């Protein structure tokens, strides 16, 4: 090779070799790499949104991958293999994508394109909820109770998805059809004995996405039960369960027998006929027109199958009790004034009467106490913890065996503190040959005062507003010399305070006064807590 410039100068000669390559590279081949080809191998459907591609081409050329509007240059190894993972910034959304592969050699010659497509699917399939088919759901539709020991299940999910069904510790796999509908019958060799089973269903789509497993309960009952005495349903069996005592005047009975059998129920001289269900279960509610009065009733149940065979007669007893129990409260701990609900006992006893064997519940001071009435209806509840002084609202409830209730709402005042000691004051008059004593107690406390002089008790009159009290003591009671007295103050709760002392009585000749004045004479009370009391025509010093 020579070079000549504008002046005609010629360069030295340079020698070299060139290669002419006019041949097109072979068309490369490739698709999803094995680890990215989730789901069914080779279907180019994946749940990887940054998939890896791999393939083959002429060694040492470049494979040009064109995908989603972007071009990627991938070097080919010496052995003719290539591999490429989509970069994080080019994550693919769910959908189908076409791609091309071209080989380009070092001369820049580009092969024809290999064309392919992939589908990105990162969405799990719909939950594959399974249920019994109509032909194997022999009980009440949808209750998953069947007499078929090899039942058939059906459901829907994504088209072509694989269903993973597990029951009785065995797992079965099968495909949904092109519409997403699936159907599976338990194999004969795996027939289920009578029992209740939990089963799970999961769907895995062609991209390998798996749904959340769903579970259900299945009961196999292939044995026709013998007729049983119809029992009250749970909602009709008020009170204690299973005792056939109810306050429901139109109770509901239920039982089991041969599927489809006719049930004949006789009660209170009425006969009722109805059908058992496909699973043999039956349920019957007494019509309102035939509501039962309180009382004890005998009833019979008989089953007749479609062939006309009848079962033996079963007999039961039913008690209707719609009357609430009587509930009364006696004043067992009502100290002080009767029936005022005020007591000085801080662990009071509640007692009363109700229906025999009724349950009695006392709710007081946020505590609950329960007892049972005896066969005569008598009951007693004693608090096991003392109550503080104060007023309490409480509730008593009686509940009989049929569930009838009666409630009393009452109030109770606890007062364990005695009143202040009463005091003896004075008076200046005597009326009708009587000595009048007076004094004070606490005002507005409904205090009762009793005065005892020389062993004889006299109730005093008390002014509740002021606390002042007075009492007239016959003159004949007063002794010449020492006289004993006691003052007793009692509050409504029965708490008492006592004050006592003595006074000395003297005759008029020992303490003369001017009788001619016509004024009442004075009895002088010498003790510090006492003043004077007057007695007509006589004088006494205390």
UniProtKB/TrEMBL annotation:
Residues 209-258 are annotated as: Disordered. This is Large repetitive protein. InterPro entries: Big_13, Ig-like_fold. Pfam families: Big_13. It comes from the Bacteria. Residues 31-122, 131-221, 225-321, 324-416, 435-503 form the Bacterial Ig-like domain. Residues 238-250 have a biased composition (Basic and acidic residues). Residues 209-226 have a biased composition (Polar residues).
